[in-house]
Amino acid sequence: MSDKPKFAMYWAASCGGCEIAVLNIHEKILEVDANFDVVFWPVAMDAKYKDVEAMEDGSILLTLFNGGIRNDENEHIAKLLRQKSKILVAFGSCACEGCIPGLANFSPIHEILGTAFSTISTDNPDNLRPQTAFDMPEGQIRIPTLYPVLRTLDQVIDVDYYMPGCPPESHQIAAVIDLVIQVLQGKAELPPKGTTIGAGNSTVCDECERTRNMKTIKEFDRIQFSQTDPELCLLEQGIPCNGPATRSGCGAKCPSAGAQCIGCYGPAEGVEDYGARLISSFASVIDATDPEEIDLILDGLVDPAGQFYRFNLAGSMLRASKAAFKANGS
Amino acid sequence: MTKNNEEPRIGVYVCHCGTNIAGVVDVENVATWAKEKLGTQGVVVSRDYKFMCSSLGQELIEKDIKEHNLNRIVVAACSPHLHEKTFRTATSNGGLNPFMCEMVSIREQVSWVHTDKVIATEKAKSMISGGVARIVHHEPLQPMSVPIHPATLVVGGGISGIQAALEIADAGYPVHLVEREPSIGGHMAQFDKTFPTLDCSACILTPKMVEAGNHPNINLYTWSEVEKVDGYVGNFVATIRKKARKIVEADCTGCGICQEKCPKKVIDDVFEAGLGYRKAVYTPFPQAVPNYPVIDVENCTYFEKGTCKVCEKFCPTNAIDFEQEDELISIEIGNIILATGYDLFDARKVSNYGYGRLANVFTSLEFERLTNASGPTGGEIVLRDGKTVPKSVGVIHCVGSRDKNYNEYCSSICCMQSLKFAHLVHERSGAEVYNFYIDIRTPGKGYDEFYLRLVEEGTNFIRGKVAEVSDTARNSEEEGKLIVQVEDTLVGKQRRIPVDMIVLSAALEPRADAKEVGKLFGISCSANGWLIERHPKLDPVATMTEGIYIAGCAQGPKDIPSSVAQGAAAAARVIGKIQKKEIELEPIRASVIEEKCSGCRICNNLCPFNAILFHEDRMVSEINPALCQGCGTCVAACPAGAIIGTGFSNEQVLSQIEGLLMLNIEAAATD
Fold first, then answer.
1. pTM over the 0.80 mark
2. Complex prediction ipTM
3. Which of B600, B638, B643 is the mutation pick for testing A, counting most A CBs within 10 A?
4. Which of A169, B114, B274, B342 is found 20 to 30 A from A222 (Cα to Cα)?
5. From the list A215, A267, A269, which residue is nearest B601 (CB)?
6. Considering its fold, how many domains does chain B have in total?
7. Which domain holds residue B518?
8. Which of B554, B582, B610 is the last residue of a domain?
9. In this structure, is the dihedral angle defined by the CA atoms of residues A32, A35, A40 and A45, taken in order, positive or negative?
10. Cα–Cα distance measured from residue B644 to residue A281, given in angstroms and rounded to the nearest whole number
C-alpha cells in the first residue's frame, strides 16, 4: 500500500460516458496515477465491494460518483462510499440531477418493466418478470431490487460538490483534478461545501458566439427541419435552444457546432427548477396574444418533457409522475 | 435563523374582524396554536383581537414590539389591499422597518369563502404557518421617491370631466382634456332642462365648456382618443390619436359658412339622437367647444365620389385640408382621471315596448332633444310626423334597468328624469301624462319635493311594470292610439291606457368599450361593466391602480350633481398628489445580478414600463429602478435566475409554500 491519497470512482445508474470523459483527459490521467492511489474504480480495475467495506472510514480522499440511485445496490454503494470518503463529488448529470435514467420517473415501475420485457420484439410468452432472488441447486442468487423512482445522489446521501455535464467536459475534469492536486500540495483551498465545481457561474449564452437581439418568437421548429443562420442566436430563429437557462462551462459546444443546447449542464446557480424556469422564459418571448395562435406556436415544441426536463426530472420539484410516486408508497 | 444571523422573534396577530372572521374561524384556537406549534419557527407572541385595525389593535403590535423585542410581525386579518398600509405603519411605529410585516388574508381567503368551521380553522393555521415561514426571510426595505409630473390627463369631456379639468387647471396645474366627439359637453349638452330645479342645461353648462376651452392651463383634444398608456403613477406617458378633422384648426374661425354651404345632409345619430340632421361638415351644436367643425369622411361627397369641395371653395380662410391625416401626440402626465360617461340602453331590446317599430315610441334621449329649444323641433313636443301635438303621453320608467332580463341595477336618474318629462309635457302641451313606475325613487336634495309638485300638477302615476305597448285597438277609443297594457298594482287590476306618445326612460349602461378602456388604463370593470372604484364607500373615485381616478357615470349611473361632485373629488385627489411633488414608491423592485446575466436578451422587450436597458458593450441587461414597478414579469422570464424581485425571492416564496403545506387540511377534514 502506498501512502498516496486514495481515489475512487463509481457508476450507479448511468451510461458509462462519465468514465470515458475521465479517460478522455489523455496524459493528465498519468497525473492522477502519480498523485493518487486508485483503490476502487470498477470500470478500470478489479475490486470487490468487501474490499471497500474493509477500508477505514474516511480513508478515501476523493470519490467521483456518477449515476443516479435506481436500485438497492446503487444505494448501498453510495452510502458505503460516503462513509469511506473525505470528499465525495456527484459527478455528471445523472448523479447531480438524474439525467436520462431519471426520465423513467414519468412511469410507474410495472410500465418500465413492461417496456423492457413485453415488447413485440421480445420473446416472452409467459410474460415473465425478473425476480430479485432465485433458488438454484448451488444456492440462492440475487440481483439488485429496482426502486419505484430514480433518486439523485443528494436525495440519498450527503454530497460535498457537484460537477455537472453529460458528461462533464474533459477540460473541466482536468481543471478539477489540478485543483485537488494543488490543494494536496497546499497551494490552493477547497471551495465551500455544496459548490458546483468544474463549471461556470452564468449560462451557455455567455460562451456562445452567436449574435443576440431581442426575442419575439412566432414559431418553434426542430433544428433538423430548419435552415438556420449560423451567426444568429438559435432561439431567435425559433429553435428551442436551452442555452439561456443552462449553466455555462461546456464552452457552448452545441450551439457553436450548429445544434441547440439541450441543457446537460443543468440549471444556473440559484435556480430551483430548471424546467419550470425555462418554460416561463420561452412563454415570455412568444409573440402572440391570441390563445389559439399561442397554442399553435406551442405545438412546435413537440416533446415538452424532453425539452424542459431531459436532464433534471429526478432532481426537479416534480421529481416523478404521480403514478410513479404512488408505486413508491408515499 | 435569518440572513443576517438574527434570531427571528415573531409576533402573530389574529383578527376577529368582529364576526367576519371569528364567525367561521376559531380565532382563539388559531392564536394558541401559533404560539405552541410555531414557537420553533420563532413565534414568541401570538394574540387574537376583536379589531386589529383599530387604534387599540395597532397599539398592541407597537407595545409587543418593544416589550417582547419582536423583529417580525404577522397579521392574520383581511386582505393586504385593505390594511397592509395600516399594519406596516403600526410595525414602523413600533420601531421596525415597515416591510418586516406580513399580512395573511384569513377573511377574503378563508372566512368569506368557507362555511365548514373545522376546515376554515385549519386553513387559517396553514396560511399563518406560510406567513411565518415567509417573514423569516424578510429584509428591511427602503421606499424610494420619484417626482410627480404636474400635468393630468382627463379622459372624457362631459360635465364630470370638465369639472375635474377646471378644478385642476384653476389650481394652476396643466390638464390635457381628451374627448372622442368633436365637442366637449357630453350628454348634458343634449338636455334642455335639468331636474329638480329646471335650470336650463345649456345655460349652466356652456359657460363651463367655454371656460375649459379658453383656460390657459387646459389643452383640449377633441375628436381624439387615448391609444396607449405607459408608465406608472407620477410618470405616465399617453399617446393620443388626434383624428383628422380635415380642418386646419389654426386657420378656422368657426364662421360656419362651410356647414351652411355643404350640400350633404346626414341624420345626426349622436347629438340629435337620430331626430335631426347635420351636414357632412359639422359642429354637433351651435355652442360647441371648440367651434371648428369636423368633416365626416364617411358621408362627405368628396370622399365618396372624389368631387364637390364646396366647403373648400367657400371657406374664407382656406382652413379646409382634405389631405390632413391622424396625428399621434405623446404627452407626459402624472395622474389620469377617467370620466368616460355612459351609453343609453338600446330600447329596441325590449321589443314589447315597440321602440323602432311603433313610430311614436321615443327614447328618453330623443325626448330630451324634442324638448330642447335648439333641438330639431325648436322645443315643440310633437309626434314623429313633426307636427301633431300629442294629447296624452305615457312615460315608462325602468326600461332596461331593475329588470332581470337586462340590467338588475337601478339607473338612479330615470325616476327624476321621467318626472321632468311629465312636467315638460304639462308645461309645453297641456297633454295628459301617465307615469308608469315600479317604485318612485327620489333620494336627492329637493327631489321628493319635485315629485310632490308633479303629483299636484296632475300627473297620473300608475304603479306597475308595463307589459306591452301596442297599436292594436280593441275599441274606438283606442283607435289610432298606442295602448299601454299594465297591471295597476295599487288598484289591483289590469288596465289598458291609450296614449298618443310613449317615452321610454332607458337605462344608463356602461360604455360599449368600457372593458377595453379599463384594459388600456390598467383598471377593471365590475360584473355590470362599470369601472371599479378602490372602495365603494371610502374611496369612490380612486382605483386599484395608483394614479388612475374615475368620475361620473363611468363609475356607475348618477345624476349631474353627483357627477360634478365626483369630478371635483377626483381633481382634489390629483391636486393633493401633485402638491406633494414626490411620490413614495413601494421598494418592491427587480434588479439584475450582473455576474449571472449572460445577456440572452429574453427579458429585453417584456417590461411593460420600459425599465430594462441592454448594455451592448458588456452584454448585460440592467433595470432602471425608478421605472421598475415590481410587476415581476422579467423575474419570471429570466432563464438564468439572474433577476431578483425584492420581496419575492425564491427563499421567501418557497418557504411560504412549505409553511402552507405543513398542515394536512384534507386529513383534518376527514377527522
1. no
2. 0.89
3. B600
4. A169
5. A215
6. 4
7. 152-238+328-341+511-582
8. B582
9. positive
10. 15
